[in-house]
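Hi,

I'm pasting everything inline rather than attaching a file, because the server keeps stripping attachments. The sequence lines come first, and each chain or strand is labelled.
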Amino acid sequence: MQDTRVRGTPARGGIDEPGSSPLDPLFHPRSVAVIGASKTEGKIGHSILKNLAASGYKGPIHPVNPKESEILGLECYPSVSAIPGEVGLAVVAVPAKLVLDVVKECGEKKVPSLVVVTAGFKEVGREGLELEKRLTALCEDFGIRMVGPNCLGIMDTHTPMNASFSQGFPHRGDIAFLSQSGALCAAILDWSLERGIGFSKFVSVGNKAVLSELDFIQDAALDGYSKVILGYIEDVKNGEDFVEAVSRASRKKPVVIIKSGTSQAGAQAASSHTGALAGSNLAYDTAFRQAGVIRAETMEELFDYAIAFATQPIPPGPRVGIVTNSGGPGIIATDRVEALGLSMARFQKETLEVLRRTLPPAANIYNPVDVLGDATPELYREAFRHVLGDPGVDAVACLLARPAGIDPAEVARGVVEERERFPAKPVVAAFLGGETMAGANDVFRGNRIPTYEFPERAIVALAGLHRYSELLKEPPPGEGVRFPDVNPDEVKRVFAAVRAERRLVLLGSEAHRVAAAYGINAAPIDLATRVSEAVGAAEELGYPVVLKVASPKIIHKSDVGGVKIGLETPAAVREGFLEILENVHRALPRVPVNGVEVQKMMPGGTEFIVGVSRDLQFGPLVMFGLGGIWVNLLKDVSFRLAKGLSLRETERMLMETKGYTLLRGFRGRPPLDVEAVKETIARVAQLVSDFPEIAEMDINPLVAYESGVAALDVKMTIS
Amino acid sequence: MQDTRVRGTPARGGIDEPGSSPLDPLFHPRSVAVIGASKTEGKIGHSILKNLAASGYKGPIHPVNPKESEILGLECYPSVSAIPGEVGLAVVAVPAKLVLDVVKECGEKKVPSLVVVTAGFKEVGREGLELEKRLTALCEDFGIRMVGPNCLGIMDTHTPMNASFSQGFPHRGDIAFLSQSGALCAAILDWSLERGIGFSKFVSVGNKAVLSELDFIQDAALDGYSKVILGYIEDVKNGEDFVEAVSRASRKKPVVIIKSGTSQAGAQAASSHTGALAGSNLAYDTAFRQAGVIRAETMEELFDYAIAFATQPIPPGPRVGIVTNSGGPGIIATDRVEALGLSMARFQKETLEVLRRTLPPAANIYNPVDVLGDATPELYREAFRHVLGDPGVDAVACLLARPAGIDPAEVARGVVEERERFPAKPVVAAFLGGETMAGANDVFRGNRIPTYEFPERAIVALAGLHRYSELLKEPPPGEGVRFPDVNPDEVKRVFAAVRAERRLVLLGSEAHRVAAAYGINAAPIDLATRVSEAVGAAEELGYPVVLKVASPKIIHKSDVGGVKIGLETPAAVREGFLEILENVHRALPRVPVNGVEVQKMMPGGTEFIVGVSRDLQFGPLVMFGLGGIWVNLLKDVSFRLAKGLSLRETERMLMETKGYTLLRGFRGRPPLDVEAVKETIARVAQLVSDFPEIAEMDINPLVAYESGVAALDVKMTIS
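And the predicted assembly:
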């Protein structure tokens, strides 16, 4: 097999070299058994054995099949227990109904790692799910690390080992790839072979009954030869662990993931495909961002990023230089630079001077530098050298089209040689045209410069590198802020009282008590069941007050005449109390009413919302946005996972919304109390993290003043 | 040369067949002269002659070069006038300084069409621009249709004729391509040759000194063999003509354009590249949409659309069926369907039943249909037939990955055969994997089924087809509404008075008079220079009134104490008048004040904005959005070209903004007067179309009531 390993990537020493990841024994086993090995070509048990032998795996290979004595020239054993000596890895390709027995035998033989390719588990329905649960339990009992079931297998090009039934083995390289779809594995393998793209590991994760995407991401972050971690996933197995572990991994190596099932129809399809129960796309987006995952929108983007990360340094900044021999592609690339959050570098005077001296008068010496269509390879090289060397340039995109009478490969060689002088700056290429550019693209690929079919994609790749550089600049996610002045016992008391009444929806007075117990400035509410109680409460709270009907069944209280505001006297309170009960009774005669809530009326101000929703996979998410009617109208909100939320992140939440402009003092209005808003969000996060029974919570409006905030209306539901 | 012309495309009869487009003589000339033909290989004048001969052009070819008697076996003439008989087309490749003389000679010889490839005109600066102006004038004098200068030339595969210095000639096909970048032409030609994509025409438009993109779009819309019109442009030559003419062309054939220079840096680069002075990206977006142009965001998208439009019918609706043999790609495609505004088809009962009978139990019979990885070509074909035949399916995407032990080409052949039964439904394919799928992709390409590397791109292509089908459903753009009850003379009087004072910014009282003259309900404003005038005005308008300082120099009037609202009595008006003058004098002692404006105070309501800006290329654009502080905060606005604006389009403007939700009555609020808002927008459009001297205009706020609207503040600047 051709070794297209790129320069500078050391081959791994071999199966005897100790590793640092708990999965090293899986990827570099001392010996491999293939259980269910077959003599019949086309059978999976045959393909695996053949692949293993063909991949250059250096340890002993033991086929297991009670009916054969030899397969492909290897001695065949009737069972795994019959194999003399240790077995490092067993690949299981027996029918589903035999898998549990085989795994048990492996456990007794102390086989540490398994790959179960057999299908017929969770993905086929309830019976399969039961079988899979027993499989998981068995592996846990024996402490076996298992890949699958229902997968294509695993490959490691550095061991080397192909423990899969794939057709083909990837080139050796720097990209660790994991996929929840075996078919995509196969397609991508084909595709990479054609393009000479190399992989370090290739993992088909299958049903993730034991080992999941998280284990493989952590492993690849630790291994000595993967430079970028690439994944296709349909769901994550454990959302909260995922965020915590991947945010560490993503600081070691870029983690680029395409997550499918983002649309409603797509999620349904994913669920029927693998039985995966995915959280919401919003939660994934939030979680991925917090985990430092670079999310690819399309398969193409995934690979465009991958080859850039595998070969290029992380750029020091966003400033892109472009060298082209024609205007059109230069303009197209320039458009993309701005659209993707990069910026066009401004050259320093010295660069402009030397370019002016070097290039013909009709050339463009400003960025994008256009050396013109008739430029020689030497001239292109010269221009590239000066652009790359300019201290204001962080990365360079090289474009070429219609090279009149010159060899594009020579231009490519010039780029390759010059770029060595500035190894810290990424360089990408898009030489446009088909066969004309094949030679040039070979030169680039052979020299670790990623090359793209269109200029836009070259810039997308630079934008991916830049996103990662921004991520590395951020302080690592911390523990999250925790306020000590909270009173969980008070919250427990309220919840107990609510449950005692067999309710899940809290009354306003209760929700405000819970919020206040966590230091949120919720305007206090007293529940009055009689006129005298209402007046007493108003006297104690101070006028003016607001009266609201108290009933978990009534959502739009104003609509039924259930709200009175700005009551200034005991008489007004008395009158308001009776009027509310009368109105509500007239509008909704059969709805039970708990009484009337009395709340001190707070001054008006700019209204925001702080809300909480709970995701199946990732736990509670907190939301911030413009409040009042604007919430539903504008949907201008930002989200974070509640767990581990830091004050720094709450500031970013504000900044992601248009509400931030209002908070900072918009068009002459005074700035509002940003710190108090941030603290409120953080306290809400702490509350819902401490009490998983809070299913939903909304503060709307949270009114922000020049000094302080007030939560005027808190809604809460427990589960 | 290989003829990869796809089935069903008739070859054009030849150069003698009359055409229906004014550019037919250009694309099918009876004879061609190459002025500046050269014997030296590598020279442009040599390449053109060689290309012309090699392309199979059937008419006489006449090289012109005073120093040669024969080139490439063709008799060479000293000048174009020395050629016996008519010359249908002259391709000019002489140095820039000789071009005018050559063109003059062509004019005298009555050559109707020219292609000037020579560079050194507008793109090189002021002198070149002068030369180009003289070239244009010369062509106009002689009535010559000229392509260029500074271009690669033109090609027509049906004539056939290659009148360019390109390397290579495209396959014959259905795509008409025009490009403002010669380099892109060359790159795309290479690229298409590699993929077997065919073109009908290939035009490098160059500097567009005479013929522009518009001429070529109109021509391709009329010719008998182009099915889709594709363009790369950096600017359009005449914005208003463009919209009108292309909206007709785009109803005949899809017009797909990538416009570069959309970013600020990109526009600068474009301007330095061709000397193009482009309008704003916003104006292009608006104009393209109104012209029915399908705008491609990237080069890749341009071609993904192109091969779909060239080969597929326009789908009857948005409902997509997906057939796949593996879950992952199916989910990825499903996600895209929803994201791109298509919908997943729901199969009828009969389809589900037959799929259930046909497919194995583990298969997914719901959309996306998953026939599973071990499906035979027959099974795939069966599933495809039923999905395609379902009356609820408008288009089908066929996906394949990891075909275990089967020949993907056989799957492709099955698709090709079945699709013939439903020729009205588009079918696209994405068979994933590299070389493995080469045979299948050949089958698809040979049978007019577009095939894509990734599932996402197949869905992008279907979305493009669907966008076009939506366009065709719209009534054709009409003349636009015109209200008869307008008073242009009043507007002229106001403008004359403003100009007489050497001002360009109108006072509020003036702007309100102009708006009122066009039937816009602008709350009347009187300008008072003395207290008594203010009181008189208030008495006449009716209380309460608002007073505002009148000065074109003061933008934020409230900030300097220049506004008093809710004045109910003559005494309050008197006091307010004096206070305003005092405040303003104190804050801005040197700013001249024209007096104080008295306006009847209108009741509050929901605030909108109607604005006008003028684009260099496309003339005035009207804008609608949420008013007040929300304009700047939310930027939630919609735009249309003022010219020819219909009431139907004003309704769409409303619907494109969040303001529409408010207008329709949001969360229990009463609906507002949508018709009055629409009429106001249309009247503003009429006003600014009638008076090109209006440079800017803003109504902010336009207050909408349950019945009627009021323009509370109208600002206007003339030029």
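The first helix of chain B runs from residue 24 to 27.

If the labels don't parse on your end, tell me and I'll reformat.
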